[in-house]
Amino acid sequence: MPQAKAYRRLNKFELHQLIGEGAMGVVWKAYDTILRRYVALKLLGSTYVKTPDMRERFLREARAAGALQHPNIVTVYDLGEAEGQLFIAMELVEGVDLSDLIAARDPLALERKLDIVIEVLQGLGYAHDRGVIHRDIKPSNVRIASDGRVKIMDFGIARLQSADNTGSGSIIGTPTYMAPEQITNGAITPATDVFAVGCLLYELLTYEKPFEGESVHGVLYQVLTTDPRPLRTVAPSIPASLERVVIRAMAKAPQDRYETAKQMRATLTGIRAALSGAGESTTQRISLGALSDAVFSLIRPTSLRVRMLVLGALAIVVVVLVYTSLRSPPAAPATPGPVAAPPVATGPPAPAPAPAGALPAVQTLRDSVLAARSRAEHAGAQKNTVPSWTIAEAMLASADQAVGAGQQTRATSTYSGAIDEYRKAAREAGVVRNEAELLISRASTAVRALSARPEATRAVNALARADSLLKAGDFTLAKLAASDAEQTAIGLGVAPPSPQPAEPRAAIDVLLQDLGRAVASERIANLKALYPTMTARDVASWGTFFRGAEHLSAKFTAEQLTVHGDSASAAVSGIYAFVPRGGGTQREDRPRFAMRFKKSTTGWRIGSVRETR
Fold first, then answer.
1. Residues 146, 147, 150, 151, CA torsion sign
2. CB of 202 closer than 8 Å to CB of 266
3. How many CB atoms lie within 10 A of CB 433?
4. Residue 2 lies in a domain
């Protein structure tokens, strides 16, 4: 008799077939020997198991996706660890990825294309209502099942919106489908996923990516500064109403997009109904269901300060409850004596006087706690509600309760832990302050490049608000205001400089790459962001050049670079390729320059330029 094939086992799963590989690990078609069904088993790569950050990302994927139960989202069945291997067991969806259909230029009917995107938006709307933002919507993460259903896959970089609605300092996502705020580490909201869906819809309708470049930086620069080719010039048969949907979804500024996936889905549903020949009454009903922009403006969220205060209060309540339930040992029977009141969740007040009955050594330790608390408060920990401050406040209250209950040993241990947490809170506040200062400095570069344009008022006001909040110690709100200023500048066509490495030569190479893209954008504002000391004569000269050229590209290369501390100089060769405006053949110009560079808090910038030929 033939013998059954021996498969590799992991816990209760038999690994049958490797079906995918990604940045975080591999996916197997596996057989659950207990429930007797096939699953998609995702395994974290062995090189990442010992990396806390990657491990946390992997677990976050499972927890975020596991909380979502929707027909348009891949279902998570199980999460565990076996033989030192983390795994997630997910619904196995037989079918084809949307990216494969696009690559094959599959001749799908326009109605079917809209149906696919509408189902994607249905799944995203459900996730957004539960505080989960995908952050990596793209064709390869959308699977068309064999029965025609649409499934969103890989919530591997999803972030709980309620946990952290600002950038973390690292760019996470796929460049072609990333919203500008992901690139600049701005606020991540449902509108971030809406931008990605707009890019996906553009590609599905045209079989062309909206943003393409020779490098990742080139793509990111286009996302920040360039509008894709008009949809109807690529696909003339597309209805004008559908083109307007794509344009709005891909707006550079988040506030100019659809606010929610549900809002975009309602608009597409109306277009879909019209394409299928729905009666006038049906179309009218759907149109009325999709609320106008004026109505939506009445239900926009409250101010940033109010939202941050509410979130801070909720965070305190949650952490206090969790800490008390998980870390405190069972309380001994109550003994007579005063007991400290529990902390108030609406804001950490000054701690109550030491409970009666504290031993002298315990009282001295509590005084050290209060001194550490004062230093953390002065650093801004309380005002910015950093995580360790909330934990420390809960520990202080718990220790006071222990003293009141006569549990001196428990009080001593908890007071010692509170000192460590307050010290950590002071460091965390310092990190937030540094982040705010860096964001304000970066936003200043972009806002200054706007010059005195009337529409720059909002960006200028947001930057001034960020500076005022920083001085007042509201570092978290200062970061949000600085991000708002930068996003407004981006929406007006200014691209902030790319992040630069620490080594001067490499940093100046990145600066010159940005300069080439700035010239190609034909926008003076982008040049000013890299060359803050441009004179009026320089501006006039570049303006004349831009008016006389089109299809412009530029490249700059540093030669004979000399670095002296925070200044540097180099001979720079340039290549301009362009077509004279008004007609003619492509021309190429090869100028040479003597450039000086200065290093600022946000990186290297051009100090002066002199043409040498």
1. negative
2. no
3. 19
4. no
For 26, the 3-state DSSP assignment is: strand
Return the amino acid letter for 106.
D
In 3D space, the residue among 497, 526, 482 whose CA is nearest the CA of residue 187 turns out to be 482
Measure the CA–CA gap between 43 and 89, rounded to whole angstroms. Answer: 9
Kindly report the pTM of this predicted structure: 0.47
Q: 92's torsion region: left (phi>0), alpha (psi -120 to 50) or beta? A: beta
Under 8 Å CB-to-CB from 200, ≥6 apart: which residues?
Answer: 98, 117, 120, 137, 138, 139, 142, 177
User: Would residue 233 count as lying in a domain?
Assistant: yes
The number of distinct structural domains making up the chain is 4
∠ CA(255), CA(212), CA(118), 5° rounding? Answer: 50
Does one domain contain both 249 and 277? yes
Residue partners of 108: CB distance under 8 A and separation at least 6: 101, 116, 204
> Residue 158 phi/psi, 5° resolution?
-65, 150
Closest CA to 65 of 155, 200, 148, 168: 155
Note whether 257 and 356 are same-domain residues.
Answer: no
Q: Does residue 1 fall inside a structural domain?
A: no
- Catalytic machinery residues: 136
| End-of-domain residue from the set 48, 76, 91 | 91
Q: Within a domain: residue 20? A: yes
DSSP assignment, residue 83? T
Co-location of 198 and 119 in the same domain:
yes
What 8-state DSSP symbol labels residue 174?
A: -
pLDDT in tens, 180-217: 888 877 888 999 999 999 999 999 999 999 998 877 77
Which range of residues forms the domain containing residue 277? 96-293
Question: What single string gives the DSSP state of each residue in 224-289?
Answer: HH-PPPPHHHHSTTS-HHHHHHHHHHT-SSGGGS-SSHHHHHHHHHHHHHHHTT--HHHHHHHHHH
- CB hemisphere CA count around 68 (13 angstroms): 34
* pLDDT higher than threshold 70 for residue 289: no
DSSP 562-610: EEETTEEEEEEEEEEEEEETTS---EEE--EEEEEEEEETTEEEEEEEE
Q: How far apart are CA 514 and CA 497, in angstroms?
A: 7
Q: Select from 187, 258, 250 the least CA-distant residue to 462.
A: 187
pLDDT of residue 499: 78
Distance of CA 111 to the CA centre of its chain: 32
Asked if 24 and 88 count as a contact pair (C-beta separation under 8 A), the reply is no
Task: For 1-47, write each residue's pLDDT tens digit.
Answer: 334 456 788 888 999 999 887 666 789 999 988 888 899 998 876 65
Percent residues over pLDDT 70 in the chain:
78
Residues 6+ positions from 274 with CB-CB distance below 8 Å: 241, 283
Distance CA 566, CA 599 (A): 5
Torsion angles phi and psi, residue 361, rounded to 5: -65, -35
Question: Domain boundary residue among 229, 263, 293?
Answer: 293
Quick one: angle between helices 387-404 and 360-379, nearest 10? 160
